[in-house]
Every structure is written in C-alpha cells, then in structure tokens.
Amino acid sequence: MIPREGASVLVDVFPATEANASLYAGEAADRVMDAGYALHQLVGACVVPRRRQA
Question: Contact 39/14 with Cβ under 8 angstroms?
Fold first, then answer.
C-alpha cells in the first residue's frame, strides 16, 4: 500500500510536467512532454495493485 501523501505526489507528476513544458518552445517542449508521458507510465506501473496469489 502507498500512503495517501505518497500517492498524491505521484498523481501530480504528469500535470506538473505538462505545466512546465509550456515554459519551453519547440523541441525542448516536446522533450519535456515526452518525459512527462514516460513518468506517467512509470507511476502507473508503481501504483497498480498486485493480484494476491491464491
């Protein structure tokens, strides 16, 4: 289980990255967004509940 405070930080990763991308233009903004998508996938992999083995 992830504590609520930790989950909150993880959930906010993508919106924070997306907001920061607007500070850049062109290829730099694209790279920041690509990083945001990659982080989003990594966070998703961390917070998906594991199935209990029978």
Answer: yes
**Look-up of token digits 């062109």:** 26
**Which of these, 11, 17, 16, lies nearest to 43 by C-alpha position?**
11
Q: Please list, in sequence order, all residues whose beta carbon lies within 8 angstroms of the beta carbon of residue 7, skipping any fewer than 6 positions away.
A: 47
Confirm whether pTM is higher than 0.90: no
Walking along the chain (54 residues) 10 residues at a time, the average pLDDT comes out as 75 87 95 92 75 66
DSSP state of 54: -
Question: Which helix or strand (DSSP H or E) is residue 21 part of?
Answer: helix 13-21
**Are the C-beta atoms of 32 and 24 separated by less than 8 Å?**
yes
